[in-house]
User: Fold these one by one.
Assistant:
Number 1:
Amino acid sequence: MVELSPFAHRVQLISGFVVATVILGIFIVTPGIDKQALTTLQKIQRRGYINVLTLNSATTYYQDIDGPNGFEYHLANWFAESIGVKARFITVPSFADLYPELLFGSGDLIAAGLSENESDFSRSVVYGPRYFEVANQVLYQKFHADRPRREIDLIDGSLKVISGTAHVKLLQELQQKFPRLSWIEVDEIATEELIEQVENGETDYILADSHEIALQRRYFPELRIAFELGEPRQLRWAFNYTEDDTLTKAIENYFTEIEADGRLEQLVHRHYSHVERFNYSDIRTFSQRIKSHLPKYETLFREEATAVGLDWRLLAAIGYQESLWVARAKSPTGVRGLMMLTLATAKQMKVKNRLDPAESIRGGAKYIASVLKRVPGQITEPDRTWLALAAYNVGFGHVEDARKITESRGGDPNRWIDVKENLPLLARKKWYKKTKYGYARGWEPVKYVENIRQYFEYLIGFETRAIRDKPEVKPPQEIAPLAPSL
């Protein structure tokens, strides 16, 4: 008896379904619809959803505590919305299964960090426009292995890569120059797990994409990037070749549109900008305090955040930025307590004792919520939160001044990515003399917000990983429910 692999079993089921459908089609003819006349795009639109093949990973699609998330998840949802359908996400077990599932299975397109000519199947599919550039990086752990400084140094250590990826092809080409170069290809495992293996000393090196490493490396402060291999790769979607090009044109038009209106830049910024220049000494301290300090205040953060409609992890991230979760913290300017409230703010929020953690967290939560309410209604999330945090730090009036400067310079005053470029101008006389509220150290709220974003994302990842590691929690379904429009 031959036991089929999960993918082969699925292909057999799909094949049986296709045969049954063809036989049934001989006897049943739907009146009024000429299916041959429908284009690829029209068939998807008539169906009402598009099947998006992807992987469960931090850079593609994953189940966050608050629901589906991921760069490719949002990108594909926007596309589905642009053609008037829902996105249906189908996760495959491994990278190597993506192309076969597209060609012989149930997918309409792959959104999973692909690049051209990385697979033997590449000639059988069509690629969309580039939307992100990544580098091929070698990662090592400084306590478990010496830093490799060039390709030949990899020969002396164990090296792992995900099978079916562009990294395998890159190593195969490199092997022509260094015949002794060897590596281990792993399947049905995510890059996140490979990174953990480097941390644990199970392998000396891995070769992975720079954006995947950037997102995960912050959880492991001792990991280091050795060097980059080959040329940077342009990430693209892949989809089946058809005689009509309606789907191709729809995808091309979509990427042209989101690049022109800034949504693509905004999405990249939202997912990756806050990890580009991460302070690993800082994150080491943060990781330690999650264990030593956060348990004392987590219930308070949860309760007070719920009371005002905030994410408790955001409130906790603000508290860490303010005081490192030290209840009796005090600054030279007189702000005190875990949330570092001024006397005026404490009085406004009816906080009698700033050194009482419960009162401090309650006052901070109420104040942040009040600032959020002042943000103009046309500003949407997450920009609404980032601008509110900037106002929490530097004052609402200065943020409004920066928004006006942003608009005068051709930027979008409703996007944090644009406003943060102009906030530092509040320290320049040429600009602040034209504003209502005058001089401000505008670089401080930028750093303040970016730090909180890092802590917030880290807390989300920390909690998600803790839930994932619990044996009683089931992994995400292979086919997720139809995703809501964004």
Note: The CA atoms of residues 467 and 473 lie 7 Å apart.
Number 2:
Amino acid sequence: MPANILNLPAYTVTALQENEHDYHIDATVKAMPVCPHCRGGDLSGFGRREQMVHDLPSHGRRVGLYVDTRRFKCNPCSINQGKTVTFYEPLPDVDERRAMTSRLRAWIGKQAIKRTFASLAEEVGIDEKSVRSVFRDYINELEKTIRFEVPRWMGIDEIYLIRPRCVIANIANNTIVDMLHNRNKETVVRYLHHLEGKDRIQYVAMDMWQPYRDACHAVIPDAKIIIDKFHVVKMANEAMERVRKDLRERLTPKQRRGLMHDRWVMLKRERDLTDEDSLLLSGWIRNYPELGLAYRLKEDFFGIYDAESPDEAQGRFLQWKSQITPDIEPAFFDLVRAWGNWNPWILEYFNHPITNAYTESLNNLIRVMNRLGRGYSFEALRAKILFAEGAHKRTNSRPKFERKSRKEALQALLNGEDIESDLSEGAIGLAGTRSFSMGRMSPTHKPSTQLPEPPKNYGVDISTLTRMLENGEL
């Protein structure tokens, strides 16, 4: 019998059976236990039972470990208590809560980050419910040990996964920091309240969702709130779309055919139009002036964000608003009202041009992951994103090694320090020749006792997560 078939030193393998899919390994515990009550070793045998536990798959086969578990009677405890005191010997390297080895539990936790629960359950030979349970415990352990740096520039956005969820991001580092199960004020307040170092948050970019704003005012009142540019200009596109759709509903089928591909052309910025696009657009504008005005209003609204100050931006907005005619005013009503309701926080962008520009790619990424992992709970999807191995953006634990300069080496020689000289050809030592000393370090040269700063974890890098998804690693 191969002694290392299990690679578990605490066990002795006594038998092995195998078939096409499985290994069945009989084993016994090597060491004698002690009484869990008195910690004594005066024990007598009192029967035994077989316990089956799952272990790591090997050579593509599932592994079942059948342990001949001994039962003991503690003689001193039985005398002292006047009754028979028995216990089964503990099984080393086995999860006390589950019928599996500790190493299998740890392996399942890591694998479940990038694989489906069903595939793991099939490979190991356990039910999917057990995989979910192990994964949940694994994530709870990670939550206690992994700490992301609090972003100085925080992004608060949302993603629809069955229902709206809140996404917390580090804008400066293009990373995901957390995902919350909903976007309610109470949830965001609770998250911010328990955030260590929340006083370091300087700016928060968000969309126009009042619970986000109220939560930030309540917990981090000193942070500047900035309404994300892209959520505002998106409303200009939506207003133009309402004009376009309303117009199409009033046209005949023949006239609609004349507006073929109008949506894709009109959503383009004017600077991105091809010659063919410009020709089409000019024809539509001649025939349907309101469509042309809606397109011009959309473009001019984008131009507001070219302003260099809040006052200039507000002036541009008032000029833009004056161009809206009564016939298309309903389509632009939401945008005008949003600017009025959120004016201070929209204009804050022109003092601090911070945006959640990355969030669209982030949202697309999360949707793809959700589609690939159809059937995942939100908690599982969140864990797969936040704890994807190799996707975290970290600082180095210490700076790069830098070669000592020639000037520093010469100065060291002049100071009489006994160190190795690494000067370029022609460098002159104290005796007028090149000096190379391999001796010990001079007592006057004391190494730094300052401990290196521990590495920082800024969260999950969105570009790395995208690459891992494209390579099938998640």
Note: The two ends are 39 Å apart (CA to CA).
